[in-house]
Structures are given as C-alpha cells and as structure tokens.
Amino acid sequence: MRKTTLLYPFSILLLAISLPAAAQQSNPDSLRKMRDDLTMQAALRYPALRMASVQLETIGGAHYTSSLQGKDFLHGRMDRQTSLKAGFTYPVFTAGTQELSLGVVYQSQETGLRNTINELNQFHVSDGEYDFRNLTLSANYRRTDTLFHKPVLWGGTVLTKFSLQSSFVRAIGLVYVRVPLKTTRTTRIAVGLVGAIDPSSLIPVIPSFSYWHRFAGSPWEISLDLPTHLFVSRSVFSRGLLSLGTELDQNTLLRKMDGPYPLQGGLALRDLDLKTGFTLEFPLFRKMLIGCSGGLLTTMSYRIQDPGKPNNQYIAKINRDPAPYFNVHIALLR
Fold this sequence. Notes:
Layout: H1 20-23, H2 28-45, E1 52-59, E2 62-68, E3 71-95, E4 98-118, E5 128-147, E6 150-163, E7 169-183, E8 187-197, E9 205-214, E10 220-226, E11 229-236, E12 240-258, E13 264-285, E14 288-305, E15 316-320, E16 323-332
Antiparallel strand pairs: 1-3, 1-16, 2-3, 2-15, 3-4, 4-5, 5-6, 6-7, 7-8, 8-9, 9-10, 10-11, 11-12, 12-13, 13-14, 14-15, 14-16
C-alpha cells in the first residue's frame, strides 16, 4: 500500500478525470455522484486523502545475518513476519486555507526466528516469537498561500510514538513545503522540501519531486514521487485502479530492552524496504475502498539503534534476503 505522506494537498481532488457529461447535469444526485467519484478517484491515487485505513501485511520467511557493534551476532532464518497497521486522521479546525488535524496510528509487528545461531553467548537470543506494539499520536497543520502568483502548500507535523509494552516515548517533528509547477488535465508537476526534526534522521532535509501524467489515447498513467515511488497505473473494472511499480517503505518501532549492554534501554527497530510488485484497489461503497498488493520485498536497511543518536551510530545491523510480501487493506474516506 502506498505510503501516506504529508506532501499532497486536498486541492488534488481536481484530478484529470474526464466527466463532461456528468458536469452538465444539474440534478443534485448527479452532482453528488460526480463529486463522490472525483473524491474516490483522488483517494485511489493519493492515500493521504483517506480518513482511516486498516492494513494487514505478511512477509515471507528469509535467511538473515546480523552484527552487533561490528561483530558477528545472530544468523538463521527470519520466519514469516506479520504486521497490522490501523490509522485515523480527522480535521478539528479549518479556517480559509489552513487546517489543523489530529491523527492516531496503531502498529503491531510479530517476527519469528528459526534455526538461530548466536555467535555472542553473553546475549541470550534464541528461536522464538518477537513482537512490537506501538501507538503514534500526531498533530498536523497545513496552509496554502501564494508566491509569485503560484499556490504554495506548507505545514508541519508533531508525532509522539509510544511503546505499548514499556514506558518508552519518542517525539519528532516534520516540516514541509510544496510548490506546483504545472497543473493540467493530463499532467501535474510539483517540487518541494521535507525537513525532519529528528537527530536519527538519515537526511535532515529531503528534496521532493512529483510527476503525474495520463497518456493520450491510452488507459495508462504514470506517477513518480521522488524519493518514495514510481508506478504505472490503469483503471480496471471501470472504477478500480491497478498499479505496477516500486516504492520505499520505512517503519520505526520502539521498545525498551533489558538485555546486557548495549541491548538495553529504549531502542528503535528501523527498517527501510523496497517493495516491487502490484497494487489493486476498488471502491466497495460510496466512502469505502478495498485493496491488496504483493510482490518482492528487498530490505535496504534494517537496524537497531538509540533513536536519540545519529543514524550512523547504530547498535546492530541486520541483513535479510529478499522475500515475498502480501498486503490486504481497507480505507474510509471523509
């Protein structure tokens, strides 16, 4: 499932969907249906427009190796990994071109280790099930202004993540700005910057580039959003959307650990994965859509670290072989 990002304004509801016949009708039901279709088609392409979502994902088993402060640590088989993620975001204040919204996300992850060989006997890690359960609360502010007669979207988010298994809390901030360069019925181009107020961030400020285009005389469209995804998509079953491509998916889970130093205290498990495959989504009711995705997951980075220290000062590093993944999800719109 495409990751939710802060970079998409609600103005993208004006998608390049050609509905000339419906636009000419004055019947209130027809106008409502046209508006609902526009909203649904926008939400299919931009998950940030969804009010609530629940997704269940499974990653197949794969061989792994690990190191602890540069020394060989564990190796064996990482059994099937199961993750559940449920989120809800709702605006609590709107005035003109500005909006304040609050959000909550619950995330759990369970991973099994099998055929474990421990090279460092002072750390008692063996076969078994290891789980994380986190809750994240967020406050999001965004505003649209104009600069040189062009709209500019800017804002920020404060996120507070809690470990539900221990008394460990971590807060970070994000700020962003987005400037559209071209907006037509078939092409949209925008640039921006995202800054992370987080000492463990790999890159504090990340430039972004967004490009969407629908090809003339073809059902296919392309969506490029650097650095997060590249998809080619087409409508299926009249109102659904099939996407093929690749995306980056990052997860951070917190928990206090009680092992010997350095595996003790509040730590973060951070993984960055490249998912290559398909996503199929379809409207189920007026304000609901369902979907699934699957393909091959390649782990780019998998680390255990102190979340208050720079990213390169990690404690443990894990290398996992590529593995298949499958995801099912459901989402609600406003």
